[in-house]
Amino acid sequence: MCFDPFSIGASIAAIAGGSGGAASGIGTALGALGTVAGAVGAVQAGNQANEVGKYNAQVAENNAAAERQRAAYEAGITRDRVRQVIGAQRAAGASSGLDIQSGTPVAVLGDTAKQGELDVLARLYSGESAARASQNDATMFRAQGRAQKQAGFINAASSLMSGFSNMASSASTRYKPLGA
User: Fold this and answer.
1) Taking the model in full, what pTM does it have?
2) Could you tell me where the beta strands, DSSP code E, fall in 31-149?
């Protein structure tokens, strides 16, 4: 489909006709065409902003998933290290002749396990906090995109009303009854 603004303008001018002559009709047609083009541009800009918002939201959601995976990985590494430390503590206690099944060695091993699990939980909490922040960003990006899309429609309607209002007021001042 070919979009030829001059043909459209000439057609609108022919339809508009009137006593203003061809130049006036073409000016009116071009004004109408400009008004419509501005409205279409506003809608397209709003739609594009909405798509950008959706894309940014998807990136933020991907970041949230990556943060959770990173935290789980770090928690696993921390658990492995704690197991190694507990194993080394058991071996050291046994090699020095301590009973590692009761008393102080059990308390030390329990404390090591508790501190290790607190480290694991801190890593998981940190990852979840970062993931929640990214998910909040995703929600914000989507809301901004929807708002900009709505603004595009509002701007389009405003452009149409303003443009056609200007053309109507221009036409009313241009065409005066005879004897006025």
Assistant:
1) 0.65
2) none
